[in-house]
UniProtKB/TrEMBL annotation:
It comes from Chunga burmeisteri (Black-legged seriema). Keywords: Glycoprotein, Membrane, Receptor, Signal, Transmembrane, Transmembrane helix. It holds the Pfam family IL6Ra-bind. InterPro entries: FN3_sf (IPR036116), Ig-like_fold (IPR013783), Short_hematopoietin_rcpt_2_CS (IPR003532), TypeI_recpt_CBD (IPR015321). This is CSF2R factor. It is found in: Membrane. SUPFAM superfamilies: Fibronectin type III. One of its GO terms (molecular function) is cytokine receptor activity. GO terms for cellular component: external side of plasma membrane. Residues 13-106 form the Type I cytokine receptor cytokine-binding domain. It comes from the Eukaryota. PROSITE patterns: HEMATOPO_REC_S_F2. Signal peptide: none annotated.
Length: 153
């Protein structure tokens, strides 16, 4: 479109992760050809019912430019969340970047809870037990897959 903005001015390498159940970190890099005074702003919408909100806690680089955002109390909904990063510069129009992300796909799960190993001297060997990781949205614990790596026999 006419107002598309300068090529190479949109952010690059946008990515987000959710950790510790409800915290989310998003990061990006400034566009390769963005003017030095370009500042970026992130807006997101968790689900269609929610309104678009601007990032409340930006992460800045040494020049004070926003290069990331930290979120708290994030709920993982079933539908895609929408992310939009636009920019402003006094010299030129900055292209925006947007992406839809399914939040459950970017969650780093906490480790399983209460892992215990009981070993008996006889042929029964060892019994290892644990409980599922904490998560905000997995209702069916049969969804979890586990892998045990035994380092020395």
């Amino acid at each position: 479109s006419v107002f598309a903005g300068m090529n190479g001015s949109a952010i690059e390498n946008f990515s987000c992760v959710i950790y510790k159940i409800s915290l989310m970190n998003c990061t990006w890099q400034a566009g390769r050809d963005a003017p030095g005074d370009t500042q970026y702003f992130l807006y997101w919408q968790n689900s269609r019912e929610d309104e678009k909100m601007e990032c409340e806690l930006y992460v800045k680089d040494e020049n004070g430019r926003n290069i990331g955002c930290r979120f708290q109390n994030v709920r993982i909904e079933t539908e895609n969340a929408y992310f939009l990063v636009n920019g402003s510069s006094k010299d030129s129009l900055i292209q925006f970047y947007d992406e839809y992300i399914q939040l459950y796909k970017i969650e780093i799960l906490t480790p399983p809870l209460n892992v215990t190993a009981k070993c008996t001297g006889d042929s029964a060997g060892c019994t290892i037990t644990w409980q599922p990781p904490l998560t905000s949205h997995v209702e069916n614990i049969k969804c979890f897959l586990y892998e045990i790596s035994i380092q020395n026999k």
